Amino acid sequence: MTPFVPPLTRLAFALCCLVSLTVAAPAQTLHEINNANGFHEMLVAIGPGFITAVKSAPETPPQKVQDALAAALEGAFDADKMEAAIETRMADKLPAKDLADLASFYASPLGKQVTALEIQASTPEERQRKAIEGPKILGELPSRDPARLALYKKIVDDLSAIDTGEAVALNMGYAMLSEMLGAAGKALPDDQIMALLRQRSEGLRRDIETDVMDATAYIYRDLPLEDLKLYETFLVSPAGRHYYDQMQVALGAVMTDEARSFGHRFFVALGYRKA
Known about the structure:
Helices cover 77% and strands 0% of the residues. It is an all-alpha fold. It has one domain (30-55, 62-270). Helix 5 crosses helix 14. The protein starts with 8 loop residues before the first helix and ends in a 5-residue tail after the last helix.
């Protein structure tokens, strides 16, 4: 049996946009910051994003596979569980000064403004508009506002959003594929699994870059350029950089664990492995 591997582009997009571009409200501890910055809501959106990615597969899998996927998705990517695991991994990674600096920025008018823009863009209705309007806005920037376009690219680069999205997507794909192959009795060496995964994920990085830039252009379309510059300055500050670096590492590891667990449940549902 050839394992069914869900497409990962949308999931990677959700990761790099929602994580890399999330901001916080006043807080002094990591847990408070994560509670205040919409991080939990981002985690809640991962499950539906994964389901969307599965449903967007170009071929319709057999009914047995569809039923197994539905069963495996129950409880997958639980936001509360992932949040606790991420905070455990991040424990003591940020010094008190970084937390204080994060709180100071997010309590500022600019921090609140950026927060409002991102929360507004996170609703289901706005996500649909973002998918339609983002490419249009981005397409006009080279001639209309090249300075803003350059700053968007710098923000995405500062956050390593594309590299992170690609790495997490591949790691998740590897975890699921290796679990599925093992359960089917078709275990392969790591290099062969990665080669197979890269073949199936051709164009992944390009798609991530497109989606990230489209989303960035849409979310910050009404933010004055000078404010956008100040926001970028914060993101590359020690506090901003340390926070996002640690968050991306922790989230990537937890997402990979969840992907492996999903792969296990998938093959349990298919009857290839015991629970």
